[in-house]
Every structure is written in structure tokens, then in C-alpha cells.
Recover the amino acids of this structure.
């Protein structure tokens, strides 16, 4: 069916693809067909997953795929994984949501993503991290016979939705599983994730996961508490 071969449209020069509009159209088509496809949704953490699951669980049978070798500390990784598991067990869904975990191997991240000490969050090394996690999701979706795969990462204001969708579309062609194009921060998605985090008492980390983002978070915190920091940076 046409709706199960979801492809991103192309934009003209200077134009942006409206991923939210495309997703709305897909969900409307699925509803008309009475189809409930299987979606493998890569999850970075419980707060980002909260709105994405609430939004999509009326249209898909969702399996959350927790795969984040970028998280530098095992204790932090486990804390986020358990928090997502707890949230799935507590949130009400029209269709049950499951969770599976990929292998946790930070060395894989360090081998495939270069040290970004001179590259702030949102730079080229982050794009390589997107690719690492989305490629694992695409492979898992293919192995599991899923109808779509996607990621919760686009809900974050610090994540580049256009780049995520570009990578996802390319991997969809490579692995033969359609990518669910999206920008979950739209329709107040990020705001709703904050509300749900408060409602369920979720742990909200202040960095993406890798040692580089943690350094940046520590630096931001240092500037906030430094009494000699100028007012413009407080």
C-alpha cells in the first residue's frame, strides 16, 4: 500500500521539508486503511520517548529500541534504560508498547565517532553518532520484520531533525525498511515531553550521553554558578 512506502518529499531551493505534515498525512492514511503497522522506534531516553509514544501508540504497534553506546558510563546507561522501562509500564497505550535493548559497547562509539573536543553539540561528530544509532535501528527493524523504523531524537531542540531524516531515508533504501520521517518537537512535542516527565517523575539528564556532551554540560553549569560570569551568559 502507498502509505506503507513512506518517503520524504523534496523541497525546492531555500525551502524546508515539512516532516510533521508528511507524518500527519501518513497517520491519516493508516487510519482510513484500518492498518496498525509495526514500528521500531529508537529511544534515547524516557523523557524524549514519552511524547513520541503517546503520539504514535494509537497508530502503531511500537517496539522501543534502546541502543545508545554513546552513553559513556554504564551506570548512566542502565539508569536511562530502567527509567524507560518503568515509563512504558506506567503509561496507558491503545496498543501495547514493548522494549528491546541493543548491545551496550561504548568502544564502538569511540571507534566510529571522533573526539569532538573542538566540535560543539550539533556538529559533524553528532551526525556520525546519529548514523551509528540509526543504522543499528535499521538493521534491527529489518531482522524483526518491522514495517517502519524511526528515532525519538528529533524531539530535542538540540538535535537536527533534517539531518536525522536525511540519514533515516538513506538507510531505509539500504535496508529495505521505510523510515518514519518526523520532527517530534513540532506540535509542542518537546513541551509535552516536559509535562509528561513531571507527571511521571522522570529522570531528566542534562546531557546527551557521550563524554563530550557531559563536558559541555559541566561547563554550562560552571558558568551559571560562577559569580564573576558576566550577566549576558548567566
Amino acid at each position: 500500500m502507498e502509505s506503507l512506502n513512506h518517503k520524504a518529499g523534496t523541497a525546492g531551493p531555500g525551502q524546508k521539508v515539512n516532516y510533521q505534515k508528511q507524518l500527519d498525512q501518513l497517520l491519516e492514511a493508516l487510519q482510513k486503511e484500518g492498518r496498525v503497522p509495526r514500528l521500531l522506534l529508537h529511544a534515547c531516553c524516557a523523557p524524549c520517548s514519552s511524547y513520541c509514544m503517546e503520539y504514535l501508540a494509537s497508530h502503531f504497534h511500537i517496539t522501543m529500541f534502546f541502543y545508545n553506546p554513546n552513553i559513556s558510563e554504564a551506570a548512566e546507561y542502565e539508569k536511562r534504560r530502567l527509567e524507560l522501562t518503568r515509563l512504558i509500564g506506567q503509561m496507558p497505550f491503545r496498543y501495547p508498547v514493548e522494549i528491546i535493548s541493543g548491545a551496550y559497547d561504548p568502544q564502538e562509539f569511540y571507534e566510529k565517532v571522533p573526539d569532538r573536543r573542538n566540535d560543539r553539540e550539533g556538529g559533524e561528530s553528532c551526525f556520525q553518532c546519529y548514523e551509528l544509532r540509526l543504522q543499528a535501528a535499521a538493521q534491527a527493524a529489518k531482522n524483526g520484520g518491522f514495517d517502519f523504523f524511526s528515532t525519538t531524537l528529533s524531539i530535542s531542540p538540540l538535535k537536527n531533525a533534517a539531518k536525522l531524516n536525511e540519514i533515516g531515508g538513506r538507510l531505509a533504501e539500504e535496508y529495505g525498511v521505510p523510515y518514519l520521517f518526523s520532527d517530534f518537537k513540532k506540535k509542542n512535542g518537546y513541551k509535552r515531553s516536559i509535562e509528561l516527565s513531571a507527571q511521571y517523575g522522570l529522570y531528566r539528564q542534562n546531557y546527551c550521553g557521550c563524554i563530550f556532551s557531559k563536558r559541555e554540560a559541566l561547563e554550562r553549569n560552571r558558568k551559571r554558578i560562577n559569580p564573576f560570569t558576566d550577566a549576558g551568559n548567566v
